[in-house]
Amino acid sequence: MQTITQVLPGVWRLRLGNPEKFTATSVFPYQPAEAAIRELPKVADCPLPVELISGEQAARGFRVGLPLDDYEQVYGLGLQLYSVNQRGKKKTLRVNSDPAADTGDSHAPVPFYVTTNGYGVLVDTLRYITIYCGSAKRKTGTQDASGGRAATAAGGAEELYEGQARGGDAEVVVEIPGAQGVDLYVFAGPGMREAVQRYNLFSGGGCMPPLWGLGVWYRCKSDFSETDALAMAEKLRGERIPCDVLGLEPGWQSHAYSCSFVWSDKFPQPKQMIDSLSGMGHHLNLWTHAFTHPSSPIHKQLQARSGDHLVWGGLVPDFADPEARRLFAEFHCKEHVELGASGYKMDECDNSDFIRNPWSFPEISSFPSGLDGEQMHAAFGRLYQQTIQSVFNNAGRRTYGQVRSSWSLAAPLPYALYSDLYDHKSFIRGVVTSGFSGLLWCPEVRHAASAEDLIRRIQSVVFSPLTQVNAWYIKNPPWEQWVRDENNADRLHEDRERVTGIIRRMFELRMQFIPYLHSAFAEYRRTGLPPFRALVMDDPADASLWNIDDAYMMGDRVLVAPVVAGVTQRDLYLPNGAWRDFETGERFEGGQSHHFEVPLEKVLVFVKDDSILPLAEPAQSTADPALRRLTVNVYGSGAQGIEFVEEDERGEMNTVILAWDAQSQSVSLTRSGEANAAPYEVARARRVAREG
Known about the structure:
Layout: E1 2-8, E2 11-18, H1 24-27, H2 34-38, E3 54-58, E4 61-67, E5 74-78, E6 90-92, E7 109-115, E8 119-124, E9 130-133, H3 157-162, E10 171-177, E11 180-188, H4 192-203, E12 216-219, H5 226-238, E13 245-248, H6 270-279, E14 283-288, H7 299-302, H8 322-335, E15 343-346, H9 373-395, E16 401-403, E17 415-417, H10 424-434, H11 451-462, E18 467-470, H12 484-488, H13 496-527, E19 532-534, H14 535-538, E20 552-554, E21 558-561, E22 569-574, E23 578-581, E24 587-589, E25 592-597, E26 604-608, E27 612-616, E28 629-635, E29 642-647, E30 653-661, E31 666-672, E32 681-688
Parallel strand pairs: 12-13, 12-18, 13-14, 14-15, 15-16, 16-17, 28-32
Antiparallel strand pairs: 1-2, 2-11, 3-4, 4-10, 5-7, 6-9, 7-8, 8-11, 9-10, 19-20, 20-21, 21-26, 22-25, 23-24, 23-26, 27-28, 29-30, 30-31
């Protein structure tokens, strides 16, 4: 049985066989942003020929085949730390905190892909699907001996193997284990970028973090007390290190692993502590996970609303049960949020298979809602976010936080992913890949092998969705000593003043970009355009962009290309058009590669030529009035003005338009809207226009 229905403009649902009861669209609360979808370009017909899509029952489950052109490239599938272009790959989308290879395992696999032909496909399932992105070829009635091309071992194994992913009979094959059918959602473009926007808007639109969430975050050592945390907050302010969010790790709870969600004796006056932090311009973020210890006041109530296996001796709440979500949320609201806590870091909501002692619930588990363990692993991080988000929605407050797992339809939720893995190149790649699937990724800084490694990692996290230093196992900031044992023995590095100065300037740069970045997130909420995205998304016809996994767009006019320790020069292909070096204004033609020197204090950041860019004065926090005083960088002719936003505490916005007048050599500011927001003002304009 196969039926197709247009559910929204440019969105079609194709039903193959008999889908399961529990799927992403049936389990996750979501509300498509229909009005915004109608603003996207009109597409009359489904971009995939329905007659070329097959679905059939197989012994292992349900098989779906979708057409794929010979040179059509495939992207997405959630947070993929090992590759950006999935063409020719086999991926099993399994929730896993310890992916060991490019197999599809991920903190946040998403059964959504998008191609350079300008459409996207969501497989509506909570199963660990296997997807062959052009590598599985079915036998037909006859095979043409003249097809393909000759290859020899002399060309290497890669040449021998790559032909399997090419050819006119290529298709995307999806295996859904144990299922008897599935719903596919097809999202039209007409381009790749618009297909991603349409998927994000179908999910409900992109998230909009509060302004403070875009500042600098610092997480304290796990065993810090209330006194220690306040001392660290004062230290950061005293040393002029920008910081908006101070994070507490497991030691704030009376029991962690599993969790009581109750303040420990080391935090005897949490309300006073939070008030003191607020007085310094800090928001408080609390580490937690969902596994509920017997000492927790909600343990008894959750007993009948949890799975049949324990994790670290704690209950696994059935977040597919609305009553379980309500009990969990109400307790967190009363014990933390009503005291003034601003958000959470939701840890260990993924799974763990590839370590010595796997710790999570098995896939054979069962839950009162009817989900099995496999389905719950797929859904758990996404439902956990929804549960915590309800706390802030009900309190009428905004939040921004972290989560270690997610799935599909997550774009509206203001939580950035993170990982205990620590390869810097993979962390940069995560910024690139997450944007295809409605996810945000934080390449947080924990430790470093050297001062150079620390600085390079800080440079990457400054140009990411969430700028965080996670010092959970060191008592002093890492820029004072990056060697763990030395740090905890208070043997600080002799070069710490120089290193601290470099990192302070990087954090100040993050603060300068907040007006621009905040507006990129406003665009994400309004139109679904990812604020951080792969270069190929904006120009899929340019084959030179197909495999770039270490450079990305931030907003509509800034390109970032971080480097890792040991790299002092690199070649970089710039997309079509002309680009300016952010700092010097040197001009570079796009559509070609350039060679760049990258000294330690340099980050490769480029701005589209003829743009203007609003930058705040360096500020210690987003509450600092300096953040509202703008220096406007003018690149080239400055003919491309910019629109950005001012937002008040209710989330209401004013639109601000900046334009450069070449004749008077001045910037004009036009404001519209009635939001009661602190206004930006132009302090000065700066021409940045040196020719290359």
